[in-house]
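Format notes (please read before filing issues)

Several people have asked whether sequences and structure tokens are stored in separate files. They are not. Every record keeps both together, in the order shown below: the sequence lines, then the token lines. Line labels are part of the format and must not be stripped during preprocessing.
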Amino acid sequence: FFGLMGGEREGGGGGVKGRQRVWDDEELYGKLFHLSTQNRAVRATVQIPDDTVRSFVSMGFATVNRWGIWDHVRDIWYDFPGGERQLDKRMREHGDMFVARSIALFSDVINNRLYERVREKGGLVYSVDMSFDPMFYADAGFFTISLAAFPDKIEIAIELVKTILAQVQAEGITEKELEASRRPTLVEVRQNLERNGYWLSLMQGIQSDQTQPKTLFSVENICEKYEELTAEEISGVARCVLKGFNERLVVSTGLSGKYANITVTND
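Then the structure lines:
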């Protein structure tokens, strides 16, 4: 596998050397990132007495970090078009930012689907949003979906979110959806390229220690790199990083209303 533990992968990875992992203490790493429960779905609910009936839902699950690594290995990429060898090639071409850029684009697509189907057509929520926390130093990342759901439609909204995620994982995104996501992304990148603060942040990332593998290629022709990304390979990234999300999905629900006491349930 291509990981942070060092050594080489035989077979699919093309003999690519791994990087030195940040975390040397396995016990500490397990406690920090709950490795023993990362593949267990959890449902928690908090009920709070209040005169106003309100609800909020947070859904989240672990995935890769911005370097395409999860649990200090990169062995989830068998379903990527061309396999791990092609992924390694694309990562080098993007200065190790290929996975992060692909996730940014398909996350926008998912957000567009969530807004249209859960809020506009479904009328299930006041707001819905998915974000990706790629982490810099941890060997993991997290997707989080936040829903300000109508209290009587929480379960329907949760199931529809899961359906949308499963569809993107199984079927990928369309060319039309990609272009709708790419256009505003390019506008934002071009605006950022005019700001000194943006360039300082890019340089800081390149000059960081070996825990961040970004190279000079990561700041070379950024707009062109986004423009060359294809729907097929972005769908391939989505297929790999969203695979099995429901098996490790954590759903937390907060409710206020005419409850006698504060109650917490966790299963």
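For reference, the curators noted about this record: The beta strands are 42-49, 54-63, 125-133, 141-149, 250-257, 263-266. The first helix runs from residue 26 to 33.
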